[in-house]
Every structure is written in C-alpha cells, then in structure tokens.
Amino acid sequence: MIYLKKFSYKPGEHEAEKASNSYLMSLIAFIAGLPLPIINLIATVVFFFGNRKGTFFVRWHCLQALLSQFTVLVMNSCGFWWTIHIIMGSVKISNHYISYIFTILIFNLVEFAATIYTAIQTRKGLHVVWWFYGNVTNLICKK
Amino acid sequence: MKKIILQFSAIIVVFLSIWFIINQIQWMTLFKVNEVSRTTERKLGDMYWDMIEKSEKVIKDKDVNPPIDTILTRICNSNHIKKQDIKIHIVENAEVNAFALPNKHLVIYTGLIKSSENESELSGVICHELAHIELKHVMKKLIKEVGLSVLISMTTNNTGGETIRQTTKMLSSSAYDRKLEKEADLKAIEYLTKSGINPLGFADFLNRLAGKEPDAQKYLTWISTHPDSKERADYIKQSTKSPLTLKLILTPASWTKLKEKAEKPD
Description:
The complex is a heterodimer of chains A (about 140) and B (about 270). Chain A has one domain (about 1-140). Helices cover about 70% and strands about 5% of the residues of chain A. Chain A contains five helices and two strands. Chain A has a two-stranded antiparallel sheet with strand order 1-2. The radius of gyration of chain A is 17 Å and the shape is elongated. In chain B, about 65% of the residues lie in helices and about 5% in strands. At the A-B interface, α3, α4 and α5 of A face α1 and α7 of B.
C-alpha cells in the first residue's frame, strides 16, 4: 500500500520539514474534523494552496496528503448524513448502518496510521508513495 | 491512467467486501437495538398516558367502552392488526379530537363521538389514528421534534417533566407532516374498506366539520390542526373503490346509547 521510492533529487532539510508538515496538518485537521468531515478537507486545501509555490518535493507531498483524504471524506460524509437522518427519525437504525460505521472506522484508522508513518518518513527526507494516491499525484503534480 | 482506474476500483471492491463481511454479524441483536427502542417506546407511552390520566377524566362506561371496542375489534381483525396491543382510552373532553401515543395508545375524546353522525365517521378517524400507530408515525414525529437523545434520557432518568408536558400537548394537538397525514388517510381507507365500513363517511365527516362556523372551530382540534380538510375529503372520495360490501358494526340502539353517553356523561 505504501512504499519508499527514490525522488528525482535529494530534498533539503527545509523541504522535508514542510512536506512532513502537510501530513501533520491533515492529521490534526482529521482529528478536529471527525464530527464534520468537510473540515479536514478544507484545512488541507488551505495548506495545499499555501504551499503551491513551494519546491517540487513540497508540492508533491502536499498534493498526496490532500488527495489521500478524498476517499475517507466521501465515506465519512455518507456516514455523517446517514447518522443525521437516523437522529432526525427519517431513517431507522439498521445492521447495514452499524456495519458501515465499523467499515469506515477501519478505513479511518488505516488512513490515520499511514499518515503518521508518512509524516515521519517524509521528515527524514524520504519519498513515500501511497498506492493509488501516489499515481494520481504523479499525474497532476508536474515539475 | 488504466492503472489508476484499476487501483480505484480495487479500493471500492475492498471497501464493499469489508462492509459485506462486517454486515454478516447481527449487530442489531448484539447491541439489543430493537429491544432498547421497544423499551423506550413502551416507557414513553406509559409516561404520556399517566400524564393524561392524571389531568383528564377517563371514561369507563358499559355503554361507551364496549361499542368502541367492538369497532376496534372489527377493524383489527379485518386488517390483521394485533388488537390486544392497542390500548384504547376514552376521555371526557368537548374537543373533537383523537390521537395516538407511543406504545400503541389510542386516545378518543367524547367530543369526537358527539360530532360523529354515524359509526363510519367515527371509524374513519379511529382508522386514521390506527394507521399512524401501525405505520410507526408516532415515534418518527417524536424523534423529529424532540430528538432521540432527549427521548432516551426522558425514559432512563425519569426526568424532563416539562418536556413530557410539552410533547403530550404536541402529540394531542398537532398534526403530522403532510406526507405522513396523507399516508395515514390512504391506509385508513384501506382499513375501512377491508372492514366493510364506508370510507365516504370519513370524507363526509371532514367536509362537514370543515364547513363549521369559525367560532366553533376552537373545539375542532382534529380538523383545525390537520391539512386542508376539503382536499383530504376529495382524495378520500377518489381513492374509495366501489362497489363496497358494507356491514354494520353496532346496532342502532348501541350507537344511540354511545352518542347519548358522549353528550351527557354521568
């Protein structure tokens, strides 16, 4: 799912710190935004635009941090609105709902662990590429 | 690009597979979800009824309760509704009103019996409220208006006297939303037809009371709080399939006695 790859150049200390911060930023926003899933996405988008004039290494990792949140954002938003409908009484609680909540919990935990690992490795100047998101980032982010 | 699409599809497949596997566990049974909702509904119903019982005069009369019970039995038996679950109460009150409470309590005011010209009119309103019960509208309305957490805390902590008072008022004197009211009307027509009661009586009742003078409207809680009565009467007429096989439930003598008692209770 996650693998280390050689980057096209060796990033400097300052670049590694900034790139690592993008994951930390998404992590903090992720914790704060759990009740309202859109908050973490907004926070990462803000961070991404704040660094869009950064070096290639920084931009690449900011983008990967941003993209990696989209799947959990969609999953969490569905879970959020499903819960709201249950609280409002328009939908009844079901086995499908409870299973869904557990499923998104697993995906959120995986994403959480992967983000922490990537933040640590990126801080060391290592280039961590995520499965799927790394390829999408390569497609969008150009030198 | 092909690789990205394949990887994205794989994520979706993994997600759905995990969901499917987790869904094999019976969480509802494990967490006793249904049991908790049933207990909450039972406690709420009893709390609301206790409040009404303390503040209103409940009728227990051999000329009032048995005829109403006979009507209810016919409706329940003809529509496969468990009659023993329905708790019907007759309350002495001049308002033309009937309402459903959680845990299948059905309250009828004597004002409603007084205003009904025949058993089909009264049965129409009973069927409408019964439909709210059977379609689980009561809990839906409560959850929507008060919130699930408040309802659960009301039943677990036995607190919220003011909330109980306010929600009792809401349940007894306000209608459900338009969609639920129409659903209950259509279900009522089905119940009436299957029971051999003319649904047009229900339409006539709505039409007649809607046409009353405005100063008389203050007693017509059931009419004034519900959606446009004329419109309802029209779609009841349209939805009524003919020819109908009609069967009288009460003898003319017992209907007359019921009316007399409703007009002049002891």
